[in-house]
Amino acid sequence: SYVLTQPPSVSVAPGQTARITCGGNNIGSKSVHWYQQKPGQAPVLVVYDDSDRPSGIPERFSGSNSGNTATLTISRVEAGDEADYYCQVWDSSSDLGVFGGGTKLTVL
Amino acid sequence: EVQLVQSGAEVKKPGESLKISCKGSGYSFTSYWIGWVRQMPGKGLEWMGIIYPGDSDTRYSPSFQGQVTISADKSISTAYLQWSSLKASDTAMYYCVNTKTTVTPFDYWGQGTLVTVSS
Fold this sequence. Notes:
The structure holds two protein chains of two kinds. Chain A has strands at 9-12, 18-23, 33-37, 44-47, 61-66, 69-74, 83-91, 96-99, 103-107. Chain A has no helices and nine strands. By secondary structure, chain A is mostly beta strands. In chain A, the strands form two sheets. In chain A, strands 1, 3, 4, 7, 8 and 9 form a six-stranded mixed β-sheet that branches. Chain A has a three-stranded antiparallel β-sheet with strand order 2-6-5, with no helix packed on it. By secondary structure, chain B is mainly β. In chain B, strands 2, 4, 5, 6, 9, 10 and 11 form a seven-stranded mixed β-sheet that branches. A four-stranded antiparallel β-sheet of chain B has the order 1-3-8-7, with no helix packed on it. Chain A binds chain B through residues 1, 31, 33, 35, 37, 42-45, 48-49, 54, 84, 86, 88, 90, 92, 95-102, and chain B through 35, 37, 44-47, 50, 59, 61-62, 95, 102-107, 109-112.
C-alpha cells in the first residue's frame, strides 16, 4: 500500500517560515491535501490539490508538490499555528485514501 | 451550511457490538462520498474507508477490512460505522468526513465520536 512519510516534529520561531514535508513514491503525480489539527479539535483543511487554499485560510499557508516530496509552507509563523499537520492523498492504484503520520509544529 | 453531525460518545465492553452514525445536511447526501477516519489516543489520523451513498459503493483500507462495516441510509442522509465485536484496541475518536470525489479533499468533518472499550 502507498506510504506517506512526514517528520514527527518541526520547530520554528515566531515570524519565521515553517516547511513540513510529505514524502511518497512519485507523489508529484498525485493531488496532495493538508490538514491542521489543534488539540481537542477536528482537523481542518488548509491546503488542497497541492497548493490551493480554502476560503478563510490565510495566504501564509501555501503548498507545493514535485517528484517524491510535497511541502506545506507556513510563512510568518504565529503562535496560533502550533498544531499537528497531516498530508493526505488518494492512491489510485489501490483505490484507497492515505494519511501521512503527522507532524507536530512547535512555535518556539 | 454543510454539516456532519455524529452520534454521541460510547462506552462499551470488549465483545459488544456498536453502530455509530453521521448525519449529513446542507448538501446532496447521495452525491458526495462519506469517509471514516480513526484517531487513537495521542496518535495520528488513519483512513478507514469510504462509501458513496448514491449507490453504496464502499472501499475499505486493508487495515480495517473485515473489522468494521460502513453503510449508509440515504433516506435519512445518515452514514454508519459498525463493529460486531469490539476490542480494547478500538478505543479511539472516529470522525466522518465528506468529499465530492475520492481524489478531492475532505472539506467537512464531523465533530467526532469517542468510543471507549473497556472491561
